[in-house]
Amino acid sequence: MRLITEPYLTQVSNWPKNGRHILAQYDDHSIVVYQAYRPAIGDFTATYGYFSDEFSFDRMSWIKPNFIWMMYRSG
After folding, report:
1. H-helix or E-strand containing 24?
2. Where are the alpha helices (DSSP H) in the chain?
3. Rounded distance, CA 39 to CA 44, Å?
4. Mind listing the pLDDT tens digit for each residue in 9-59?
5. Residue 48's CB: how many other CB atoms inside 10 A?
């Protein structure tokens, strides 16, 4: 999946002004959800443009979708 990115200040102007939100992108095969990282990981990645050894691509967080969403996605 090719992720669509924008600078933070461009994105934040389009976000709702209050409430709780999930930032994600999806296509027919996957869903990618933004996750905040520890400052050590986030600062390094923002500075150098890649993940440090503290980040693991093998670790995955699971988000449980609701029933109606699963019905919609399964047709």
Report:
1. strand 24-26
2. 8-12, 39-48, 67-73
3. 8
4. 888 888 888 887 778 888 888 888 777 677 888 788 878 888 888 887 776
5. 9
